[in-house]
Amino acid sequence: MEEDKVIYKELSYQLLGLAFGIFNELGYGYQEKHYEKALEKCFVDEKIRYKKQLFHKIVFREQEIGRYYFDFLVEDKIVVELKKGVFFAKKNIDQVKDYLKATGYKLAIIINFTPNGVKSIRILNPNNVN
């Protein structure tokens, strides 16, 4: 079945459930950092392993030329980026694709807190999907 090919299906659903719970309690209008703190609290409460504001070096010819910082790495599998707004900006999608290319992780989820609820988009690393 095609459905069985969903990468990290259960963990993805769990993450989105946490985001919906945050929205139900807080609503819309807070800064991204507040949603980030709320999600971190959920990770602790649910005993989900995570790393926050993780950085990855960009190296060229053995020299660091930059760094990527992403909001969360969950269970050493899924990059999670939180956003607030009405739509998914192309620059945010491109940013997350760059994270995946640089790190080799298979999946990122952008979770967007909108006035009408939580929206999400799953982004696969085309270079690392089995």
In short:
With 130 residues, the chain is of the alpha+beta class. 36% of the residues lie in helices and 35% in strands.
Helices and strands, with pairings:
Blueprint: H1 9-26, H2 32-46, E1 50-60, E2 63-74, E3 78-84, H3 90-103, E4 107-114, E5 117-124
Parallel strand pairs: 3-4
Antiparallel strand pairs: 1-2, 2-3, 4-5
Overview of the structural elements:
- By secondary structure, the protein is an alpha+beta fold.
- The protein has one domain: Lambda Exonuclease, Chain A.
- Helices cover 36% and strands 35% of the residues.
- The chain contains three helices and five strands; from the N terminus they run ααβββαββ.
- It has a five-stranded mixed sheet, sandwiched between helices.
